[in-house]
Amino acid sequence: DSNAHLRLTGMTHSSPGNVRVIDLTGDGFADRIYMADLGGKLWRFDIFNGESASSTTEGSRLMEGGLLASLGNAEDSASRDETNTIRFFYSPDPALVTKPGPHFINVGIGSGHRELPASDKTAVNWFYSVRDYNVYTQLLSSWYSNDPSATGCTDNTKPCHLTLDEGDLVDLTNSVGDTATAAVPVAYPNAAAGWKVQLTVTGEKVLAESRTFQDRIFFTTYAPETITSTSVACGTAFGQNRIYVVNALDARPVNTQWDTNVSTETTADRSKKLAQGSIAPEVVFVFPTPPVDPNDPNATPPAVPPICLVGLENCGTGLLNPPVRTYWLQDNAN
């Protein structure tokens, strides 16, 4: 729109998912926004609090932004067919990763045609993990580029973010163990841009947001499979949901006993089938109230670990990091 205060000509696709807003400094003001669209693109916006919301001059306007990654056909010179068209119907999942090495924001998201959950069996979908290493550095719109020779990208005269594409992400579909870890290093100068994992079941697609917790990515998928079960009427049901739990750093499975080979880490350990029908929702984390000792109500209650749920089912993997009660006192309060 020629009348917009910030014009981004690459914004040509709709974005049905919510934007993800982050306060990085803890001052109560939004600092960063991540967004995805139906063209398979991931966008990043920095908010320059205190600047003008109506200015069109770079460096003095409230919002700056650009294309973090283009993982679909939006940036391709040739059109794609239905087998490799990438669509993002849901919000990205940004999470701060602080170990090992430099900090980065891991932006996780999966593709899938939400409008055709059952009939689309042609598209090959993926789950992507994109690393944003400019965690605390605000970027101006002109600092985004898809040209490796652009000013700043080679001479370090200014920050530069090269728009990532599918080829920049390491394919870990068939890699696990130490091989996967070594393929996506965090340390400079060989820090990986991120990774991707193909969803290998026919018609399998991500139809919910992912969640990152304790450096693990939790996401569900749906595949239009006909499944046989003695627990359903007539013995068959349509549609199979799965839950994936993988390490945010290298897509390695968290639970190495989800397949029949319990002694070896395999790609099958990344996911397990869910019992629920229809389309499974995103994962949620429940923090139970610690029990109170009836004999000593003033005693510090024991820590209770959180519970991971998808629908009415347990995620099937344990969690640490129980919440800790923190007490504070405010002087001279009315």
List the helices and strands and how they pair.
Layout: E1 20-22, E2 32-36, E3 41-47, E4 63-70, E5 93-97, E6 104-110, E7 126-132, E8 144-145, E9 161-162, E10 164-165, E11 170-171, H1 177-183, E12 194-198, E13 211-213, E14 216-228, E15 236-247, E16 271-273, E17 284-286, E18 307-310, E19 313-314
Parallel strand pairs: 4-10, 8-9, 11-12
Antiparallel strand pairs: 1-2, 2-3, 3-4, 5-6, 6-7, 7-12, 13-14, 14-15, 15-16, 17-18, 18-19
Order of strands across the main sheet: 1-2-3-4-10
Query: Over the alpha carbons, how many angstroms does the gyration radius reach?
Result: 22 Å
Give the SSE order as H and E letters: EEEEEEEEEEEHEEEEEEEE
**How much strand content do the residues show?**
25-35%
Helix content: under 10%
Low-confidence segments, given as residue ranges, are none
Distance between the terminal alpha carbons, to the nearest Å? 51 Å
Outline: globular
Largest sheet: 5 strands, mixed
> Which structural category fits the helices and strands?
mainly beta
Global mean pLDDT: 89
Number of helices: 1
How many individual β-strands? 19
Report what the structure shows:
The protein has one helix at residues 177-183; strands at residues 20-22, 32-36, 41-47, 63-70, 93-97, 104-110, 126-132, 144-145, 161-162, 164-165, 170-171, 194-198, 211-213, 216-228, 236-247, 271-273, 284-286, 307-310, 313-314. With 334 residues, the chain is an all-beta fold. Strand 13 (211-213) and strand 14 (216-228) form a beta hairpin.
